[in-house]
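Hello,

Our lab assistant flagged a job as stuck in the queue for most of the afternoon. It eventually completed. Since we weren't sure the result was trustworthy after the delay, we are filing this so someone can double-check. Below is the sequence as submitted and the structure that was eventually returned. Let us know if re-running is recommended.
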Amino acid sequence: MTMRIAAILACLLLSACDGGTPIKPAPQAGETHEVTFIWRIADQQTMEQTYRNAGRELGKHDRLYGFAGHLPDGRAVVYTLPPRRVDDSATCTLGHEILHLTHGDYHP
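-- returned structure --
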């Protein structure tokens, strides 16, 4: 298995969301989405505390890889762990969370 395939599989397996769930509505060829957001790179403990402070629940055995939301002033923000490689789980999570900014809550 190539490193790229392994990285993609890792992203699907490690994402906080189910990698097999369809995106609804899915982005379509020809669409344009302008996205402006703040990217906050955090350690695990800080990210989980920020998530809880935002009023979100995290199960005892859940592992958070990133999340998207909005600051009190309305600006979009994405939190992830620090990426280390081009296709590692933090990089894949960043893309996943940007999709939340453009398509909202596109999965259960």
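-- support follow-up --
The delay was a queue issue, not a problem with the job. The result is valid. The helical segments are 3-14, 44-53, 89-103. Residues 3-19+34-103 form one domain.
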